[in-house]
Amino acid sequence: MRTTEKPRKSANGAGSTDDDLTQRRRKEIADGACVVFDQRGYANTRIADISDHLGVGQGTIYRYFTGKEDLMDHIVGHAVRRILAAMREDGVGDSPVRTAAQFVDQITAVAHRLLDMAARESVLVRVLLVQAQAARPDAIDDLTDQLAVTTAGYLANGVESGYLREDLDTAAVADAMVGITMPAMRRVLRDQLDDAGREATARTIGRLIAYGAVEPEFAS
Amino acid sequence: MRTTEKPRKSANGAGSTDDDLTQRRRKEIADGACVVFDQRGYANTRIADISDHLGVGQGTIYRYFTGKEDLMDHIVGHAVRRILAAMREDGVGDSPVRTAAQFVDQITAVAHRLLDMAARESVLVRVLLVQAQAARPDAIDDLTDQLAVTTAGYLANGVESGYLREDLDTAAVADAMVGITMPAMRRVLRDQLDDAGREATARTIGRLIAYGAVEPEFAS
Amino acid sequence: MRTTEKPRKSANGAGSTDDDLTQRRRKEIADGACVVFDQRGYANTRIADISDHLGVGQGTIYRYFTGKEDLMDHIVGHAVRRILAAMREDGVGDSPVRTAAQFVDQITAVAHRLLDMAARESVLVRVLLVQAQAARPDAIDDLTDQLAVTTAGYLANGVESGYLREDLDTAAVADAMVGITMPAMRRVLRDQLDDAGREATARTIGRLIAYGAVEPEFAS
Amino acid sequence: MRTTEKPRKSANGAGSTDDDLTQRRRKEIADGACVVFDQRGYANTRIADISDHLGVGQGTIYRYFTGKEDLMDHIVGHAVRRILAAMREDGVGDSPVRTAAQFVDQITAVAHRLLDMAARESVLVRVLLVQAQAARPDAIDDLTDQLAVTTAGYLANGVESGYLREDLDTAAVADAMVGITMPAMRRVLRDQLDDAGREATARTIGRLIAYGAVEPEFAS
DNA sequence: TATGAATGAGCGTTCATTCAT
DNA sequence: CATGAATGAACGCTCATTCAT
C-alpha cells in the first residue's frame, strides 16, 4: 500500500543557506557513491556499501536521493555535463579556426582536454563509460550524439572555410572523431598514459584526423 | 558469488556424439540468454526469464552452465572470438598491402566487415558492447587490446613498406583506428545505418585514416 | 527499476489437477496466515512469522500470493463469503414465513448460525472483525451493507404479509438486526458463550426483535 | 516495543500553569494525530505525517508522548470516556423511568446522543471504531463491556419496576442494545444519516427494543 | 535427462526514535 | 523548549540455486 506521497523536501522558505548545505551534502554522497560504484560495479553495490564508505547511516542517503537509481542518474548527468563542458570550453569564438594548422590545434586541444579530464576525474569517467553503459544506455547514446553534433558543426565550418575537403562526409567524420579518443581515454583510465603520453596522443590524433596516416608523396 | 565449491561439470567420459549434443544445447541456451540479456539487461534478467524464453525448465540451464555468470562468460567469449575473426579474415596474406590505395581498401574492408557483423549479429554485439561492459570490463579491455595490437602490426608493415609516414606513432594510431568505428557500430546497432550507409561509412573511415580531412592544397 | 511484469502463473494447459493442487496450497497458506494474523495482529505479522508457522520458506508464500496485502484480501473475501452463506442458508424458500412465530424462528435460526459460525471458525471471524477493520474498512462496510439489504428484504416480506407492523422502517430495523448479534459474536470469540449460551442468546434475540422487551400489558 | 526504559515524563515539579500548558499541548497533538490516523490509517501513519499536519518538529511529539503507541492509547482512552459520558448523561436520576413510554424515551435518548456524538466527533469515533480495533482490541472489549453492564443495570431496574418482561435475559438484551446502534453509527460516520435521519433512527431503535417488530394483534 | 516448486540469503527501502543545536 | 537531520534496525520482497520427482 505505497500510496504515500513522499513528503517532498519541503520548499524551504528561508534563504539559500539550507539549500546550499543540501546541495553540498548531495554532492558528497554522489561522489562517494561514484567511488563505490567504480570499485564494486553498480549492480554489486549495496546501499550499505555506500553508507559505510561515507561513514553515515543508510537512511541518510535516502534523505538526499530517492534510491540507488536516482544516485546513478545524478552521477551520469553530472559526468555528461562535465564531458560536454570539457569538449566545448575550446574558445572557438576567441580564435576562429581558419587554417589547417589551427584545425589540428583545435582537435589536439579537445582531445587533450578529454584525456586530461579522464586523468583528473578517472572515477567519474570510468563509472560513466563502464557502469552507466548497462545502467543508462540511453544516456550514453545521448552523450555521443551531442558530441557528434557539436563536432559536425566544427567540420561544416571547416568545409565552408575551405581548409577541409569539399566532399567530406561531416556526419560520418564527426562520429569517427568522437570514437577516436575513446581507446586512449580507456588507457588513461587504466593508468597507461601519463601526462606526456596524453599530450603526445592528443597531437597524434590531431594530425591523423587532419592529414591522415599516409606518407604524402604516396597519396595516390 | 557462492563460496561453496561449484560442482564442476563432470568431464563427460562418453563418446563425442554426446559431446556434440551437449555443445549444441549449450549454444542454444547461450543464444537464448543473449537475446534476453539484450532485451532486459544483464542485471535485470532472471534465470526464469531465460528458461521461459527457451521454453525449458530453469534447472535445465544449470545442467549446461554453472550459473548466470558462466552464461555471460560464454557469450562474451563467443562475441570476442567473432569480432576478432571478422577483423582478421582480411586475406592479408592473399594480397599484401603495398600502396596507399591498397591500405585504404584494407581499412575500408575491415571497417565494413565490423559494421556488417554488427548488423547481422546485432544482439550479440549489443550485449558485448552494452551489457558486458559492466559485467566483464576486463574482457572488453582484452578485446580492444588485441584489436589494437593486430592493427599496430598492419601499421608497422605500412611504415616499413614506406607508404605510411615514417614518424607514425603506430600504437596511438592503432588505438585511434580501433575507436574510430565504434560510434558507427553503435549507429548500426540502433538501426541508423543501412546497407549502403555502412559501405559509405567504411569508405569514409578508410579515406580519413589514410589521407585525413584536410584539403590537400591547404596541408602545411 | 521494477518494470518487470510478474511472470503470471502460467495458464497451465493441462488438466485441473495442478490447479487443484495450487488451490489447496493457497488455502493452506491463507489459513496459516489467518491464524498468525489473529495471534499477532496484521500489522505486527511479518511474512517470516507466517512462513515459520507453516514450516515453509518465505518465498513459497510469494508463489501463491503477491504479498501480505493479497493474503489479507483473500482471507477477508473468504470470511465475507462464509458469513453471507451462513446468513442465507436459511431455507427461506422451503418454509415461507407467514406468522410471527415463524418470524421469531427465522431470526433465531440466523442468529444461531452466525454465533455457531463464530464458534467454529473463531479465528477467521476474529480476523475479519478485528484485523480487517483497519486493513480493509471498505470490505467490512460492504459486508454489513449486504447483510442489511438481505435482512431488509425479509422484513419487507413480513410487512407485506401483515405480521410485521405496517409502519416499520425496514432499513433502520435491518441495520439494527445486523448490529444486534455483534456483541454476542464478540463474546463467542472471547469464549464467553458456550453451546447452550449461543442457543439461548439466539432465541433472546429472536424474541426481542419480534416482541420487544416490554411487558405486554404495559405496552402503550 | 523498544526494550530500553522509556524515559518517563518527569513529574513536573513546577506550578500548575506549566501543567495546564502541557495538557493543552498534549491535547493539540493528540487531536492532530487523531485526524491523521483517521485519514491514513494507524499503521500507515508516520510520526512525520503527524508533525507535518501539526506544523511542528517530529521531536516535539516525543516531548509530550513516549511514542506512536502512547498517542493511540490516549486517543482511545479519550474516545472511550466521551462515549461512556454520552451514554450516561441521561439524567436517569432526574426522572426515574417507571413506564414503558419512559423506557422508550430513555433508549431513544441514549441512541440519539450516541448518533449525534458520532456526527459531531466523527473523526474520533471513526478512529476508535476502525483503527483502534486492531491496535487496541482490549480497549474496545472493555468499552463494550462497560456499555453492556450499564445497560444491564437499566434493564434490571425495568424488570424490577415491572414494565419489562419478568423473564428478560438482561445480560443478553444489554449486549443486543449495545450492538443495535453500531450499524447506524457507521452510517453516520459515512455521512449517510443526517440530523433528521439520526432522530428517526434513534426512535426506531427505541420502539424496536421496547415493542418489537411484530404487529401486536399477531403476537403469539 | 529435464523439470519447476521450494528455498532462504540478501538487499532496497522505510520510519520510529534520538540528540546536537 | 523545539527542532529536524541523522540513524540503523527491521521487514517485504526477489531470485539464483537446488533437488525430489
From TrEMBL, chains A, B, C, D:
Which InterPro entries does the annotation name?
Answer: Homeodomain-like_sf, HTH-type_TetR-like_transc_reg, HTH_TetR, Tet_transcr_reg_TetR-rel_C_sf
Q: Know the name of this protein?
A: TetR/AcrR family transcriptional regulator
List all membrane-crossing ranges: none
Coiled-coil intervals: none
Q: Which GO terms describe its molecular function?
A: DNA-binding transcription factor activity; transcription cis-regulatory region binding
List the stretches of this chain annotated as a DNA-binding region: 46-65
Q: Where is this region: Disordered?
A: 1-23
Q: Which UniProt keywords apply?
A: DNA-binding, Transcription, Transcription regulation
